[in-house]
Design a protein that fits this description.
This protein has helices at about 10-20, 35-50, 55-65, 70, 80-90, 105-120, 135-150, 155-190, 190-205, 215, 230-255; strands at about 5, 130. By secondary structure, it is mainly α. Strands 1-2 form a two-stranded parallel sheet. Helix 1 (about 10-20) packs across helix 5 (about 80-90), helix 6 (about 105-120) packs antiparallel against helix 11 (about 230-255) and helix 8 runs antiparallel to helix 11. About 20% of the residues are buried.
């Protein structure tokens, strides 16, 4: 996973035309059946299997069985392609059970879990700088649904947007840790168990030295894989938001009526 790409780093106007289907459609190319949608889905599948660095116009032409120049009839280049790939995978998230009436907490939980699952399916997302995203239909549709489900929080518009940013930041941090762990095992050829086993003699001496009494007193399961750190952190984040929502609700109840 090499972070070398950025959303919106190409021609944003052209990306938006392609995303919103407002530009001119290419005339029939030499390869029947070649479409923009097929190009994008093939690029996503390639990135899922081999990483974003594997995606190039030349490689895509090979995967699609067509000439490289044929692809340029549909899309200017890789930078605009990445904008379309992002929009494509953003359309995978399904509505949570119960719709918008399940309450804001359930909505935030569903949003966080769906976002984590999305990054697990598409680890290459972490290699794209999305500080300046080009917003396509799927991104806007998802934001619309999420904001509508957070209306019951009683927060201001900037605060609701901040809730989304906060949750996404938490999810991305967790996803990055998980993806890095998988990559480390692949690159080293060493399992987690083997890696920590090699350190055991050194850590054992450190723990019995008396220099690290707090760590030495930790239970055996402290660093075990059975504890769900993502779920624990998510619930604490939601608990904090719950306090804020209750404060706002109480303030609205005690506010004098005009």
């Amino acid at each position: 996973m090499t972070s070398t790409e950025a959303s919106g780093s190409g021609n944003p106007a052209r990306s938006l035309e392609l995303l919103w289907d407002t530009g001119e459609r290419p005339s029939r190319g030499p390869k029947p059946g070649l479409t923009l949608g097929r190009i994008v889905t093939t690029a996503v599948a390639l990135a899922d299997a081999e990483g974003l660095d594997a995606v190039s116009m030349r490689r895509l032409s090979t995967e699609l069985g067509t000439g490289t120049m044929s692809l340029y009839r549909y899309i200017p280049g890789k930078t605009e392609l990445i904008d379309l790939m992002l929009n494509h995978v953003q359309g995978e998230t399904e509505d949570p059970p119960g719709g918008i009436d399940t309450g804001w907490r359930a909505a935030v939980e569903a949003m966080a879990r769906a976002a984590l699952a999305l990054h697990q399916r598409h680890p290459w997302l972490l290699a794209v700088n999305q500080a300046r995203p080009v917003l396509g239909p799927n991104a806007v549709r998802g934001l619309e649904k999420t904001l509508s489900r957070l209306q019951g929080m009683g927060l201001s518009d900037p605060e609701r947007v901040s809730v989304i940013i906060m949750v996404e930041g938490y999810v991305i941090g967790t996803a990055r840790t998980q993806v890095h762990a998988i990559e480390a095992e692949k690159m080293s050829g060493t399992t987690d168990e083997e890696f920590w086993k090699a350190q055991e003699p050194f850590l054992s001496r450190a723990m019995t030295s008396g220099v690290y009494p707090v760590m030495a007193g930790l239970s055996e399961e402290s660093f075990g894989s059975d504890f769900d750190h993502f779920e624990f952190g998510l619930q604490r984040l939601l608990d904090g938001l719950e306090v804020l929502v209750e404060q706002r609700t109480a303030g609205q109840r005690t506010r004098p009526q005009p």
